[in-house]
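Hi X.,

You mentioned you wanted examples for the new student's onboarding notes, showing what a folding record looks like when two proteins sit in one file. Here is a clean example. The first protein comes first, with its sequence line followed by its structure tokens.
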Amino acid sequence: MRLVAAYGSARLEARYRHGQEFWVLRWHAPTYHTHRLEAPTLAEFLVRLLGELPEAEQQRWTRCTP
């Protein structure tokens, strides 16, 4: 799946290794460095992705609203 990010595009892939799912996200930073985030499950992938966000964004996504 290709995604549009704030500074370009990103690619999310679900792969299979030894019969198990494996998630990979690749994107380019504004400095043109390529970043890669990997996780063995979708849940772990989302936790790691949240950890990559700036603290203000982490709080925005994890804040509980009544």
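Then the second protein repeats the pattern, sequence line and then tokens:
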Amino acid sequence: MRLPDGTVIMHAKTPYDPAKAHEYYLRTRKLKGRKKGAPTFTVRSAKGGTVTLTGKELVEQKAYAAKRVNAIKQKLADLNSKLNAAMRVAKEKKTKSTRESSKPPSAADKSQAARESKKYRDKHQQAIATKSKKTAAVAKKKPANVDPVVELETKIYKLKETLKAVVAKQRALSGATMNR
């Protein structure tokens, strides 16, 4: 097809053909009705993408997320009670040890202990050396004694991070938009 000035109308690097365009229109002019089926929901995932779920899947996901949140909250409450108990025990140990060593050793006691320690080291030099090598080897294999309070605090921190992620997922499921 040509324009009044004589140039050819181009469509996708080929000349425009009105007969071909009309044929295409006749093939595709039928109206398409709505597609029947269950409505779908679009949910934003934590990774930034979107996921399409059916109504049943959405309900299942919401129930699973709620169940998981409750389980994590229960575990967090248990860990908090264990932490309080461990802190109480640690505090009792600390007060007990401070009561036992209420008076500091005198200079005479210190020098007496030093003399006895020197005699023991001189007498048991070989036994001390082998004992130190054994403890060094065991220390490499086994981690150092970890304070139970610190261990519980790290568990609680990790559990709180997991709870944040699960709650975010539950909120995303609650904010799902319906597609038609």
